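Re-run requested by the PI after the first attempt was lost when the workstation crashed. Everything re-entered from the original request form. Ligand of interest: pyridoxal-5'-phosphate.
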Amino acid sequence: MCTKSKNVIQVPLLDLKAQYNGIRRETEAAVAAVFEAQSFILGATVENFERAVAAVCGCAHAVGVSSGSDALLVALMAEGIGPGDEVITSPYSFFATAGAITRLGARPVFVDIESSTFNLDASLIRERLSARTRAIIPVHLYGQMAAMETIMSLADAHGLVVIEDAAQAIGARRGGRSAGAIGHYGGLSFFPSKNLGGAGDGGMVLTGDPARADRVHKLRNHGMDPKYYHALIGGNFRLDALQAAVLAVKLPHLEAWTSARIDNADRYARLFTAKGLSPDPVKLPAIPPPDATIRHVVNQYVIRVPQRDALRGFLQERGVSTEIYYPVPLHLQECFRDLGYAAGDFPAAEQAARETLALPVYPELTDPQADAVVEGIRDFFNRP
Ligand SMILES: *Cc1c(COP(=O)(O)O)cnc(C)c1O
C-alpha cells in the first residue's frame, strides 16, 4: 500500500460550522425574536414555516412535528394502523422506518431493494401483499425517490395507504413531483445532518388531503380539539417554535445547497472516472442529470467498494471521514428477531450493507477536499 506523505487535509463527513458561518446573523436574529416573544409552542412561527415548506414541496398541507421518526409514527396513527396490520417497507433504511410500524403493534413486511438505487424494488411488492396489508412506506434513500408510479398504482389497486419516508429527500423530484407530495402522506426530517437541518430535532408531515391534515394536527397535540377535549389519543409530537425559526432562515438557502451537493457528486463522478477507479473497484451511485422532472438531492453520496471496512479505516487515518449507512439491514436487527427473518432473505439489502460507503458531499465541501477523498481511495487501491 502506498504510504507517501501528503499535506494533511481534513475532510469531515459534514461541516455544519461552515454552513452556520454563512447564516449566523440571520439565525441569531430569528432565535432572538422567539426569545423576545417568549412564545415557544406552535403559534405563528411554526405556522409560517409550515406554509413555506408546503409551498416548496408543492403539497397542500404541512404539519410540523417533533422529528422525522414521529412524522412516520403520526401518519400511521392517523390511519389507525396497529395490531394485526402489516406494512410493507424497505429492509435497508434508518431504523425509524420499521420502528414506527412496530411501535404501534403492526408488523413490518420487508421487500428487497434494487441494487442500483438502494430503494424498494417495487416489482417485488405484489407478492408480499396479504389480507392484512394496510400501507406501504417507501424510503427515498440518500435523496433519490423510489418508484412512486408503480407503488401508487399498486396502492390504488389494493386500497393501501402510502407514507413516503422522505427524511433524506426534501426537494427531490420524480415525474415532476416532489418527495413527500405523491403519497397519502410524506414524512420529512430536520435532523441536523439532513439537507434541511435544524438546531436539534424536528420533522414535518405532508399530505394533500385536508381530513388527514386535520387528524395529524390533532394527533401531534394529544388529539386535543378544542383545548382539553380529546376525541383522539395522540401524543406530544409538536415542532418547537425555536426550530421553526431556525429552519425558516435556512429554507431559502436549500436550493443553493442542493445544487452544491449535486455539483460535488458530479465532481466525484468525473474524478473517479478520470482516475480509472470507476466502474471498478468503485461503483458510483446512479445520479441522473437533474431537470424539472427528476432530481436526486444527494443527502448522501454512497459508493460501493470491495474491502469497504479496510478502506474506511485507511481514509480515516488520512483525515477523511466516511460513514456506513447502514451496516445491518433491518430484517437482521436483534430487536426484530421475532419477525422470523434470516440472513439471505434480502440479498440486495445485505450486499449493500457490506459494500456501501458514504463520502463527504456537504454543500461547503471544497474542491481540494473532494480531490483528497478520491486520492485517498486511489492510494488504497494502489492505482497510479
Ligand atoms: C433521519 C431519518 C429518519 C428519522 O428522522 P429523525 O428526524 O432523526 O427522527 C427516518 N427515516 C430515514 C430514512 C432517515 O434518514
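Saved to the shared folder this time. The chain is about 35% helix and 10% strand.
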